[in-house]
Amino acid sequence: MYRLHVNDIYRYLFRLTRDARQAEDLTQDTFFRAFSSLDDFRGEKVRPWLFKVAYHAFVDWHRKQVKKPLQFTEQMPERMDTQAIDPAESLVHKEMWESAQLFLERLPEKQKQVILLSAMQFAYAEIAEVLGIDLADVKRSLFRGRQKMRRMWREEVDDEQ
Length: 161
Prior knowledge:
161 residues, mainly alpha
């Protein structure tokens, strides 16, 4: 179970914390909590259950950090194509990720969570389970979050022109 899901859990927590060390600690805490609460596991799908545990580990950590603002890095981690050598293409790709990250940070927390989980290929029902919200709320938050990001994107393009 650990080997199958550790990388996805880490990436999710890294996107939430923007701190590699903190994401590692929370990943470890997630699997510790999951192991400790195996008695509560009711045979549902493992992946959404682990993300639910990771989300709650993040929320607990975030509540402890109330006095300290979250420190975000300048860009989201990228999967670079080793064969791509065009510097212009690389720069455009980097700028798009930076803009997307800035827009994502400006969204309400629920919309940000839903978009991140959706980007990680979770089904709507799985997102609802992870976040503890109903299916209609997932769909509504995803739709509204995407709309807001599109609007921010258009405003940025209009400002540049």
